[in-house]
Protein: TLN2 protein
Organism: Grallaria varia
Amino acid sequence: ACRFSLSLSPVFFFQMTKSVTNPEELGGLASQMTNDYGHLALQGRLAAATAEPEEIGFQIRTRVQELGHGCIFLVQKAGALQICPTDSYTKRELIECARAVTEKVSLVLSALQAGNKGTQACITAASAVSGIIADLDTTIMFATAGTLNAENNESFADHR
């Protein structure tokens, strides 16, 4: 199972776009995003390698790469805004990049969920089988104790 925290979330990008008014905060946020993306890229590579069918793995890889490109543009715009904090055009570009990266995060998450469907189906099936086994164990317990009504004079031991 692929487990990682994806702090590249809408809340993170809200902070990024909010920092348009405080460009001095952008450096720390860009650094955090770079570290988080590095972790995501590693985990995404593992998820893509284990995904079935292969096309899901390809989709995960592709979407993680596209997210990486979006993060690069976002960091570049953050740097540009730090250089010229009053440039309204750069502020708009930063907000658009943050919006695009948020969209790419959603695409990565949907690809990861698509790769997880087989795992979820196995968990559901295992749970159903466990329930059936528990029901059989209960029935066996009552039958062994002789509390079930027999339809004829046969004993449970005859059928066990």
User: Anything to note?
Assistant: Confidence is low (pLDDT under 50) at residues 1-7. The CA atoms of residues 45 and 61 lie 7 Å apart.
